[in-house]
Amino acid sequence: MADLHIEEFCHDTLRTLIQLYQVFPRRRAIYVEDICGEDEPDELGMHSARHLACLGTMLWLAEEGYIRYIDTIYQEGIDQAVLTHRSFVLLTGVSNLRLREPEPDIPPGVAHEKLMLSEQMRAALQSRSSERITAVARYFLSHEPQPVQADEYRGIITPERPGEPDPEGAEDPPEPDYPPGWPEQGKSPHS
């Protein structure tokens, strides 16, 4: 049996990241009640442990470099929050973890978007499955951003003019013809 507080942390993590992804690059306030539901403070004005754990998740995401914010809004949320570069790259990257495959008859650009980690997060949240939500959160948190490879866009980006090098890197430009006796073979004859 999984620890409930870890499942809640994973849920709060995905909801926070997706809310910020949907407005990126704008900053916005994120309220705890929008992530984990309404909370009724007790007679002393203290929030529940669940509410405070959700706020703790937001603050932890900032401490670990996944989001930035300007200030807390008492214990209600964080103000002026935005994804960091690290999170943006991870969320827009093609995920090897697939909870939902794109339909086979959609355009290549749309299919590419459906393979991004942000879409897998949405699929996990829509499923309401604790196992799926935890799997995607752990996948996200265990990865570092990787450079985007040109072949990721194969079928989406094509050369604009005939003879232009393929942006997918499939063909390297031909080696220039050097005149006999050319002193430096490594330099272009036109430089």
Architecture overview:
- The protein is an alpha+beta fold.
- It is built from seven helices and four strands.
- It has helices spanning 4-21, 32-36, 49-63, 85-92, 108-114, 117-127, 130-141, and strands spanning 28-31, 67-68, 71-73, 77-83.
- Strands 1, 2, 3 and 4 form a four-stranded antiparallel sheet that branches.
- Strand 3 and strand 4 form a beta hairpin.
- Helix 6 (117-127) runs antiparallel to helix 7 (130-141).
- The longest helix has 18 residues, at 4-21.
- The protein is elongated, with a radius of gyration of 23 Å.
What is the N-to-C succession of helices and strands? HEHHEEEHHHH
**First-last Cα distance:** 68 Å
What is the rounded Rg? 23 Å
- Kindly name the structural category: alpha+beta
Question: Mind summarizing the main beta sheet?
Answer: 4 strands, antiparallel
Write the layout of secondary structure elements.
Blueprint: H1 4-21, E1 28-31, H2 32-36, H3 49-63, E2 67-68, E3 71-73, E4 77-83, H4 85-92, H5 108-114, H6 117-127, H7 130-141
Antiparallel strand pairs: 1-4, 2-4, 3-4
Helix pairs in contact: 1-3, 1-6, 1-7, 6-7
